[in-house]
Amino acid sequence: MPRSTASAAWDSGGEPRDTRDNRTSENVPASGHGGADALRGPTGDPLLAAKFAIPAVPRTLVRRQRLLDRLTTGTAGPLTLITGPAGAGKTTLAASWVAEGSAPGPVVWLTAEHEDRAPGVFWSYVLEALRHHQVELPEDPDRPGSAEFVEYSMLARLASGLAHQHRPIVFVLDGLDQVPVREVASALDFVLSHAGPSLRLVVISRVDPLLPLHRYRAQGRICEIRSAHLAFTRQEAAALLRGHGLDSCEESVDVLTARTGGWAAGLRLCALEMQRADDPNGFARSFAASQSAVADYLLAEVLDTQPEATRDLLMRASILDRVHPDLANTLTGREDAEWILAGLTRAGAFVESIAGTRWCRFHPLFAEVLRTHLRHHHPGLEPRLRRRAAAWLAGHDRLTEALEQAAAAEDWEWATARVVDHLEIGRLLTGPEAHRLENCFAGMPRDLPGTASALVAGACAASQYDLAGCRAHLDRAEEHIRTEQAQPSPETQLALALLRLLSSPGTDREGGCDAVQEADRTLDLAGHVPPSRRVQHPEIEALRRYGLARGLLLTGHLGAARTAFAAAADGCTGATDVVRHHSLGQLALLESLRGELNEAEEHARFALATARNRSVPPARQSGIGHLALAAVALERGDLRGARHHLDLASECPDAEHDPGTRTEMLVLRSRWNLAQGRWRAALAAIGAPEVRPPTLPPWPSQRIALANSAIQLARGDPAAAITALHGAGPDTSAHVIALARAHLASGDPNRTLGLLPPPDDQRDAGLAQRVDILLIRAHAALLAKDTETAHSTLGEALTAARPETLRRPFLEAGPWVRHLLELRPETALRHAWLTARLAAVNGTFPADRLPADGSPSAPLVVEQLSDRERQVLQHCAQVMSTEEIAGAMCLSVNTVKTHLRSIYRKLVVSRRGEAVRRARELGLLF
């Protein structure tokens, strides 16, 4: 018969062994809980009652229902594990849960400490905790007779006694990480397994205990509350600040939550400091202030508890955002970094592993404290460590991180040479890491000697739309090249040519050859770079294509620019989404100018989606896509939509700096105001001629001239409209049409028709231009009393415009369009796509022209009268003579007659009475 297990104890391997001969009478209490030594452990030291006390709940406690519910759910099973770093709120959570009264039965609390690591001492505290919290066992287990081991019989009696409880016992064991002894964990697992459902163990620890957690997980018998669960959400952080009387600091919640990572202790310490600060929100925005608030805590609770080798590694590796064991070994000169980092990660020492990799990261506040510690104890070491890290990172194809380290060490020579020699110049302008690379060189002095530094400075200027500054740096780079003895490398020449192309001012008025020649030269230089390197840098070709397209656009070669932007967008990859975003926006804008509204809208929305879905940095996002949508909206008569997209475009960084984008913004705002009859606001939008930049490229210059001409025409001054077009850039179809429209308004139909291309020769004109030409021809026919030709030509224009819902030409044409449609109401009904949108504009068709169903046809817009013309018309309605009107308005008689002629033209009438009657029909007079 085997020996009774009552005489066995648990050894260090977790197996029972005989210990009867080791027990002495001095170790056995006189009775279960009585006697003088009832509160003494096997070492003879007293058992400290404070360890059985349930911690008090802080007055500023934030009640976090999601965690309380998780804990309640967990204690329905045998094991609940709460793990997290120091100050994560583990103990506070459990104590608040107990205070809520949500436990399924009596709660026993034991706080373990490092001195309790001896098995006998630990289990003595367990038994005394049960007695302290008045849990009566059917048979009192024997007290451990030795500090070094416990008897199997004691564990068996304890498990049996717990199993016979009428209600579940919730045993909260706080600080099990202080007792990292395998035999303690083995014995704890034994009791938990044999106590049945009557024991609900809640373990609070900074690290995973030595319990067989894999088995509990596989059996579904464990609930885990980890660091990620304990981190404060934004709402919880806001509640914490309010609990500290910081109700006015709502704006600081996001920055504090991000900086602390939701770490409970960090938030509370910052809140306490904010209470004492004169400017609480300013304190929250200061990283240094937040660091000082938690520095003592982190040093005492984390850093000072580590061995010397670990502290050294932590300080040296703190210069990195992410730490690799091999890189840490490079920084420390050791070979055990992987083992140390793994231990820190398991210990929850504010070091966390990055899933699926060998990398890990430090908590940001902890890293800042470590760096401060490094600078204090090892002055001058940080730059050397950063240079060492930069070399390692560059050698492992992590160039962006390498450049960040070199920049932090202010090793500009190494960093700029690396960018140029490895053809990384394009990545400063496009790609997902462009903004990070630009930030690397934000602190670099812009007058550093050397070709590479000048090229990098030029690229940084170009990325900020400072094209003049970019060209100045490129001039400096060329000066360095001329003074150097050696021939510049192909990479250097290619970087210089590419930046020259992208920063071209676009002022070539002789055919746009500069952009073509620069693009061809860039392509030729790219051929001298090793093919493998070209494959690694697709952004070079993407930027070359974009630079060519931009140059063609600024010099007014719109057809070639449109083709080039489409090619640039099609040739982009995921690494060149910035180029795709800009190219699609420019393509959409050119399509909107041609009247290809459906494609323009599609490409513009694709451009904006590229920025959203491909994570184009905000600093690189262009407003050109929104401008294209605003142009589409204006072409369709949707003023509200146009205003919406103009406002969005104005928030983009290129709205004020890029000459093309800024010009288009001004022109579209001017057109928006003009569409509402506000010609003064329209003129103010594009600015007075004397304050406009004299060096505008040809195409932006012409866009301003076209807008000015339209304004002058709207205010009834055809001569000024013609003058505005003189010397206005390339001879595009838009320029010809604007000139023809102005001559027609001035009463010169022959000159008008002579300017227009023949009907069979409009190959280069877009839909919008073709419709404009048709309307001008129709208006000229009407003025020549050829009503039939006018009507048929108007119908042709309506039919052409219908697929794109192109309304703008008809809105700008004038009231004669309405006049013709009044004569043919069936045409108006057939083209309700135009008339229905204009219901809010003045006037309706006469009652005798209603459709058969009695519903009124939608009104047509009229060419807006100027304020002075409206006043003249009001006086005409009062049956005042020309002389009386002149006297009332303090004008000359000839000026009044000029206004009357303009009114007749706009309202398509020939006498005053007709003008007054039509104005009333259109709602211009009341």
TrEMBL record:
Keyword Ribonucleoprotein in record: no
Bias (Basic and acidic residues) ranges: 14-24
Domain HTH luxR-type: 856-923
Keyword Transcription regulation belongs to the record: yes
Keywords: DNA-binding, Transcription, Transcription regulation
Segments for region (Disordered): 1-42
Superkingdom: Bacteria
PANTHER family: NITRATE_NITRITE RESPONSE REGULATOR PROTEIN NARP (PTHR43214:SF41), TWO-COMPONENT RESPONSE REGULATOR (PTHR43214)
Protein name: LuxR C-terminal-related transcriptional regulator
Source species of the chain: Streptomyces xiangluensis
Classification lineage: Bacteria, Bacillati, Actinomycetota, Actinomycetes, Kitasatosporales
